[in-house]
Amino acid sequence: MNRKLKKEPGSAFSYSSGDTQVLGMVLQRALKGKSITQYLEEKLWKPLGMEYDATWSLDRENGMEKTFCCINARARDFSKIGRLYLNNGNWQGKQIVPEEWVRRSVTADTVTGASFYKYQWWLPSQSGDFMAQGILGQYVYVNPSKNLIIVRLGENYGNADWVNLFKSLAQQY
């Protein structure tokens, strides 16, 4: 609550994990007693037929989900989230996420000049690819033109330039 605005909202890009956590707090209040984990399970995990339960790191025991990070899941299940967005929010004939939201989520914002990030997705190039990125080098990279999804799990970034590696793999695919 003590955060001060650096710029007028919508006028410039500034990534902040804290902003994502604030979004989580807003969502938590809107859910009126349901946890964010329960909402995720109801809206995504079950409809996508995830194979394994996910865990979400909390800020304290029985606390709030760290919405700026910390969903732990299997690569196969993360790839389903990539597939959902690759298919414009449609999963096996059912619209799970509104198509317009998906389109806007992965389209560069020309107003703020943030051509590389939008609605929690990183946009690594102008060719339509997009990705989710975890704080320890986890990625869900999606290249719609190649119908390609790459998931990378890890404990750290290592010495690789993952974004360029993914783009290179997609070009060769």
Structure description:
With 173 residues, this protein is α+β, with helices and mostly antiparallel strands. The chain has helices at residues 17-30, 36-45, 75-86, 99-105, 162-172, and strands at 55-56, 71-72, 90-91, 94-95, 117-118, 121-122, 130-133, 139-143, 148-152. The strands form 4 sheets. The protein has a 3-stranded antiparallel β-sheet with strand order 7-8-9, with helices on both faces. Strands 1-2 form a two-stranded antiparallel sheet. Strands 3-4 form a two-stranded antiparallel sheet. The mean pLDDT is 90.
How is the topology of this model organized?
Elements: H1 17-30, H2 36-45, E1 55-56, E2 71-72, H3 75-86, E3 90-91, E4 94-95, H4 99-105, E5 117-118, E6 121-122, E7 130-133, E8 139-143, E9 148-152, H5 162-172
Antiparallel strand pairs: 1-2, 3-4, 5-6, 7-8, 8-9
**Average of the residue pLDDT scores:** 90
* Secondary-structure class: alpha+beta
Distance between the termini: 47 Å
Low-confidence stretches: none
Biggest sheet: strand arrangement: 7-8-9
Tell me how many strands there are: 9
Shape: globular
- Strand residue content: 15-25%
Q: What order do the helices and strands follow?
A: HHEEHEEHEEEEEH
Q: How would you sum up the major sheet? A: 3 strands, antiparallel
Helix tally? 5
